Amino acid sequence: MNIDDISDEIATRLRTIPGLRVYQDDPGSIDPPCVAIALPEDITFDQTYGRGSDRITWTFALMAARLDADKARLTKRLSPYTSGSGELSIKRVVESEDAEAYTPYTAFHTIRLTRGEFAILQYGSIDYQGVIFEADIFGQGTA
Amino acid sequence: MTFVHGRSTYISLTSQDLSEFVTTSQIESNSDSHDVTTYGQNAHKYKGGLTNGTGTMSGIYDNSTSAGPRAIITPLIGSNVTLIRRPEGTGAGKAQDSVEVLVTKYVETNPVADMVTWSCDLQLSGTVTRTIQT
């Protein structure tokens, strides 16, 4: 699997979420709500014989709003993105296999968001309400 | 002498390469043993008889309708086909096992939090031809 292609395809899928900005590089400043896609956590080679498949663990960070600016209850602010359904559901959008609604993935075979860790995330000395999502990605080993 | 890693193993049924879908495989070979103990012995004595064996393979499910494990193996259940297994991978000078097998079982397992997996049981029919690839 090519991690650059994977990053592009996940970013494309996330950009379909209304109002969500997606950063794949260091933008210098961010405008929440946004998701930052950095490097994968790890890649495990040789899941099957003959370089048949590899497995990647990838985390990406949702920054929903500035901690000092947002007066809404934290759960109300984050719930749309962490819910399993709904227009803003990151899990639903990233995992969808609806080929009419979303461009099918070609850089890997499957992706599953396995967990989300709620956290205060910092960028440029500013704290943001956020969630770190962990994705389990399985795909071709030789590509 | 060199130790060998399993990741390059090649395995096929009826000439269809299943390697990219397989995570583990084995061939077990054994023989009948016949007790030939007679008077005057202090311990049992045995002689070998007919050989026998089984094979197994398992791996990660693929949804291909022509080349995946489900597509290749399910039509073979109950049939005798040729199994080829190269424990060191493909290449001149490397070991190869070739044997006729009866495909006796195919299992698919669907866990909620992981990849779909499959497994297959084989009964060896006849002797294993062990050669060196050229």
Question: What's the alpha carbon Rg of chain A, rounded to whole Å?
Answer: 16 Å
Q: Low-confidence runs of chain B (pLDDT<50, min 5 residues)?
A: none
Order of helices and strands of chain B: EEEEHEEEE
Gap between N and C termini of chain B: 19 Å
> What is the CA-atom radius of gyration of chain B, in angstroms?
18 Å
Describe what this molecule looks like in 3D.
The complex is a heterodimer of chains A (143) and B (134). Chain A is built from three helices and six strands. With 143 residues, chain A is an alpha+beta fold. Chain B has one helix spanning 69-73, and strands at 10-13, 16-17, 22-35, 46-60, 80-86, 95-109, 117-124, 129-132. In chain B, strands 1, 2, 3, 4, 5, 6, 7 and 8 form an eight-stranded antiparallel β-sheet that branches. The interface between A and B is medium-sized, with 12 and 16 residues.
Q: What is this structure's SSE topology?
A:
The complex is a heterodimer of chains A (143) and B (134).
Chain A: H1 3-14, E1 21-23, E2 34-37, E3 42-44, E4 53-66, H2 74-82, H3 90-95, E5 110-123, E6 126-140
Parallel strand pairs in A: 1-2
Antiparallel strand pairs in A: 2-4, 3-4, 4-6, 5-6
Chain B: E1 10-13, E2 16-17, E3 22-35, E4 46-60, H1 69-73, E5 80-86, E6 95-109, E7 117-124, E8 129-132
Antiparallel strand pairs in B: 1-2, 1-5, 3-4, 4-7, 5-6, 6-7, 6-8
Notable features of this structure?
heterodimer, A: 143 residues, alpha+beta, 6-stranded mixed β-sheet, 3 helices, 6 strands, 19% helix, globular, B: 134 residues, mainly beta, 8-stranded antiparallel β-sheet, 8 strands, 51% strand
In short:
The complex is a heterodimer of chains A (143) and B (134). Chain A is built from three helices and six strands.
